[in-house]
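note to self — DONT lose this again. spent like an hour looking for the file last time. sequence + predicted structure for the chain T wanted, 78 res
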Amino acid sequence: MIERGELDTYEITWNSGHIETVIAHQVSWPNIMNNRPSVVCMHAEINGHWTLTLQAREEDIRTIRRVTVPENVSEILS
């Protein structure tokens, strides 16, 4: 069994303004190929099963922000 570590928490802001929280071990969005829309996929291991926690068209998402660890502005600026 692969040790994936702790789950990360992401805040998704949709173009509609709705904000959603999603957990994941992995986030990916492939390049646009064959004129298909680019799709964001998030997966997490939950209760020993690799699970799709989000699948959405990239164009429907305004921002994705990892919020597992609060941002420390002083560390960013130094």
